[in-house]
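Fill in residues.
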């Protein structure tokens, strides 16, 4: 069934109100009629089977039939911290990584970032990124839309490393520590008694990569420098590969837990 992510304020005890583009999609794209059923996801990750009860221009009222217990979300939260790439590559990263299972994205500016950051355009850019993440989450039948942070500086990113249980800096000059090796070692030492999901940050540099100074700064701030193989990957490819590797190690992509 088609699924839609609906804001908290549009839920009632026994129903949900669909508005805007989603209402248009229900009635005009999907040719929805009274009695048709689809899925609605609440911000807390719960998913309900709903049935169209009434429809008018721009609004669909649906009643909740049942709540689905199963979850499609990974057992670990992985955030992709991506230095802003050229063109529409950030959109590709958000779309593909959302499908794969990323919990969120932290766009940042580093020394070799080519894109000129413009704070006047940030709101519109974030709005588009959120829309892309929402549509990708619907397509992948996820229960949550990944969170997208505001764009931060390299210095700000370093100062936030304590928000993660593990920070992995993907660095092409690293030769000794592979991502899988570091992750397995960390998992053996991780505190399994800790409550809540573990959170991993995967940090990806821009087209020109990180400077040696940035790599040293990240390591000093607590990051583990890793490589994802002997081949040099494009920045948008590195994000997909690293995310997939971490999820595989956690048994989320057919791997072993």
């Amino acid at each position: 069934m088609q699924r839609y992510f609906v804001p908290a304020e549009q839920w009632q005890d026994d129903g949900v109100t669909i508005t805007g583009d989603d209402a248009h999609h229900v009635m005009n794209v999907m040719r929805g009629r009274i009695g048709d059923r689809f899925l609605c996801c609440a911000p807390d990750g719960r998913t309900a089977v709903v049935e169209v009860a009434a429809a008018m221009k721009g609004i669909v009222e649906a009643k909740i039939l049942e709540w689905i217990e199963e979850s499609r979300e990974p057992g670990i939260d992985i955030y992709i911290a991506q230095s802003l790439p050229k063109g529409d590559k950030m959109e590709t990263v958000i779309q593909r990584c959302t499908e794969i299972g990323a919990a969120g994205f932290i766009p940042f500016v580093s020394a070799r970032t080519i894109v000129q950051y413009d704070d006047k355009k940030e709101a519109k850019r974030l709005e588009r990124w959120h829309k892309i993440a929402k549509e990708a989450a619907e397509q992948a039948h996820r229960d949550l839309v990944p969170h997208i942070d505001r764009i931060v500086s390299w210095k700000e990113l370093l100062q936030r490393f304590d928000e993660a249980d593990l920070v992995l800096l993907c660095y092409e000059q690293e030769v000794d520590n592979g991502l899988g090796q570091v992750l397995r070692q960390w998992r053996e030492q991780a505190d399994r008694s800790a409550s809540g999901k573990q959170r991993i940050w995967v940090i990806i540099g821009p087209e020109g990569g990180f400077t040696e100074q940035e790599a040293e700064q990240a390591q000093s701030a607590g990051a583990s420098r890793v490589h994802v193989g002997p081949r040099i990957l494009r920045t948008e490819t590195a994000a997909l590969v690293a995310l997939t590797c971490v999820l595989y190690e956690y048994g989320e992509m057919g791997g072993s837990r």
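The chain has two domains: 3-68, 77-249.
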